[in-house]
Amino acid sequence: MKLGRFDLDIVSDGTFRLDGGAMFGVVPKTLWERSKRPDEKNRILMGTNCALVRAGAELVLIDTGLGDKQDAKFQAIYDFEPGAVRLPESIARLGFALGDVTHVILSHLHFDHAGWNASRAADGRLLPTFPKARYWLNRGEVEHARRPNERDRASYDPRNWEPLFEAGVVELFDATTEPVPGIRAVKASGHNADMCVVTIDGGGAEGGGQAVFWADLVPTSAHVPLPWIMGYDLFPMQTLQNKKDWLPRAAAENWLSIFEHDAEVALGRIVEEAPGRYRAEAMVATTA
Fold first, then answer.
1. C-alpha 95: how far from chain center
2. What strand order describes the sheet that includes 176-180?
3. What is the per-residue pLDDT across 144-199, written as a single tens digit (0 to 9) for each?
């Protein structure tokens, strides 16, 4: 789709499942199950909606999905979608080669956001999946990923970032970075200390050229209401404050919202129904 001077596509890495209670924290199941139906194990379906932005000669990928390095036990726990079209094929279906990607921006380094950063070559080595890209990683997130605590250790896999450092393709940043003019990663703590959202400003009137990639600040369209915050979040009150800071602007300026983990609603707009009360208005999206 056109986004001002940019072209935006949603590229998927298939679906997986996470516990519904963990995904909605203190929100009662009787409320959240109206939006996200759980399976017999209380897991809800999760999307992996990454964003591919064409900006002139630059091709920017935001997040890289689940990847293919996990063993069968791990895939069974999270119910990886069998036979899914994975991210490299999603990109190829749009007519691009992996070597066409010039920048990869990571919202953070959890396994479901950074999986295709690196992949295994024929000789068994782990190499950057996008061989000509610079990978943009938040410095604090890298430091924490290398020394995680007991609560979030299972979310990190060093195979998703250490090969990038070995290849010398990493660009570290602190609070914010803008690898391509108009495409900006901004730290928005809450889910963890250094997660980022990514804003895309392609120009255009009335928000027609602006979008936000929420990552895990607003992982699905059901998480738009302010108190609907994941139990996974390490700093939920920071999540709440960031939602209070970001959602009013997204609603007022009619930004396109990208919900990374929504298996049904990849794209939408934020609507303020009443002061401080927000909901998502779904848009039809075609994912590659």
1. 22
2. 176-180, 183-187, 196-201, 210-213, 256-258, 267-274, 277-283
3. 999 999 999 999 999 999 999 999 999 999 999 999 999 999 999 999 999 999 99
The label of the residue with tokens 């996974």 reads 232
For residue 254, the 8-state DSSP code is: T
Q: Is the pTM of this model over 0.90?
A: yes
pLDDT (tens digit per residue) in 195-221: 999 999 998 655 568 999 999 999 999
Nearest 5°: the CA angle 139, 214, 264 is 135
Number of C-beta neighbours around residue 267 at 10 A: 23
**Residue 87 main-chain phi, psi, to 5 deg:** -55, -45
Mapping DSSP to helix (H, G, I), strand (E, B) and coil, where does residue 165 land?
A: helix
Provide the sign of the torsion angle of the four alpha carbons 102, 108, 114, 117, taken in this order. positive
* Band (283; pLDDT cuts 50, 70, 90): confident
**DSSP letters along 120-134, please?**
E-TTS-EEESSTT-E
- Under 8 Å CB-to-CB from 105, ≥6 apart: which residues? 60, 61, 62, 63, 136, 177, 179, 183, 185, 196, 198
d(Cα 52, Cα 65) in Å, to the nearest integer? 12
What are the angstrom distances between the C-alpha of 35 and each of 31, 153, 186, 273? 8, 29, 29, 18
